[in-house]
Q: What sequence folds into this?
């Protein structure tokens, strides 16, 4: 392994990752598995087939890729999946990544469905994780079971409570589905804000084949915001997390709501991120197909730095998601669980 600026702070810093549109990549989403213990209707098909474990990057390979990204200026890593907490050696992976906190890496965080959080919250807090995104689309047990195809809400609520008891700040990510949870959003926000949890609402994106028609699921968040504005006083908030969310303060609850609108209001101009799948494919854009096979580079002893530099020249300007009619094919064939959500 070559010495780098991470080992020797006086070494010349390698070039930052800047794409051909002048955007600097500082944020890596690192998927550690494509498997998940839930089957959310908008995310996966009911009968998903998963990759053989031998295809996955091992913990040392994940660390090596992360290390190169950090040396090139990545300051934030979000571990994701699939469901990251179902990977058996997740604590080994988190331990390896946490070594870079304060050495280039400013934030190590995680996106989870929360089902395994009660088991892992204490270790995550010990390893320097401070904030966690929990994906939770309903706090009604029946709606939750329907959307997740059999998930147990209690398990997630226990996980959230455990995480909060260990000092982890929680944000809820909520995909809004026209006929499933759209009507529950005001009460879900009330539930979360009473527990000091911010909420980010997300539009359903056309990623991968599922049983349902995306057209029946998709609702533009402008409609949800109009409904919320009839119930609450919303004021724009300048708060930013480095992500695409636009935030609003809710006067009545004292909490915050974020809106992620990949379809109704494309946010690609400020994109600062890339995504590595659990098999080492680097996707430059969630909604486009171009990738760089970093596993091949790693396993052939190739030049990872050169591969990153080359990949950056191919980062697309924008995705082109569109759900404007029934029966449309997805924008990309990969499910979100494959790319890393
Ligand atoms: N299992 C983890 C979780 O639940 O957060 C991480 C992976 S999951 C794929 C990441 C996020 O992607 C979740 O918030 C999920 O709701 C969201 N997601 C999955 N498919 C989506 C889609 N088609 N459109 C919008 N969001 C989606």
A:
């Amino acid at each position: 392994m070559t010495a780098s600026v991470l080992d020797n702070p006086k070494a010349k810093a390698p070039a930052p990752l800047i794409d051909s549109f002048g955007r600097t990549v500082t944020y890596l989403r690192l998927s550690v598995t494509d498997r998940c213990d839930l089957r959310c209707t908008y995310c996966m098909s009911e009968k998903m087939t998963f990759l053989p474990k031998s295809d996955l990057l091992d913990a040392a390979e994940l660390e090596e890729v992360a290390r190169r990204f950090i040396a090139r200026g990545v300051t934030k890593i979000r571990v994701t999946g699939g469901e990251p907490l179902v990977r058996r050696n997740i604590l080994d992976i988190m331990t390896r990544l946490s070594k870079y906190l304060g050495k280039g890496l400013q934030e190590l965080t995680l996106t989870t469905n929360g089902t395994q959080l009660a088991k892992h919250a204490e270790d995550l807090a010990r390893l320097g994780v401070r904030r966690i995104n929990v994906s939770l689309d309903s706090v009604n047990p029946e709606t939750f079971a329907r959307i997740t195809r059999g998930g147990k809400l209690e398990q997630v609520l226990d996980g959230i409570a455990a995480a909060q008891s260990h000092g982890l700040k929680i944000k809820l990510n909520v995909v809004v589905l026209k006929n499933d949870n759209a009507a529950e959003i005001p009460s879900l926000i009330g539930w979360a804000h009473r527990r000091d949890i911010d909420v980010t609402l997300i539009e359903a994106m056309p990623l991968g084949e599922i049983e349902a028609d995306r057209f029946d699921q998709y609702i533009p968040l402008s409609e949800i915001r109009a409904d919320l504005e009839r119930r609450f006083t919303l004021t724009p908030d300048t708060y930013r997390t480095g992500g695409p969310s636009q935030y609003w303060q809710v006067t009545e609850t004292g909490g915050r709501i974020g809106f992620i609108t990949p379809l109704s209001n494309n946010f690609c101009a400020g994109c600062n991120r890339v995504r590595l799948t659990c098999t080492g494919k680097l996707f430059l854009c969630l909604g486009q197909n171009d990738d760089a096979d970093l596993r091949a580079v790693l396993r052939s002893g190739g030049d990872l730095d050169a591969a990153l530099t080359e990949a950056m020249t191919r980062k697309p300007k924008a995705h082109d998601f569109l759900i404007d009619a029934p029966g449309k094919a997805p924008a990309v064939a990969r499910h979100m669980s494959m790319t890393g959500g």
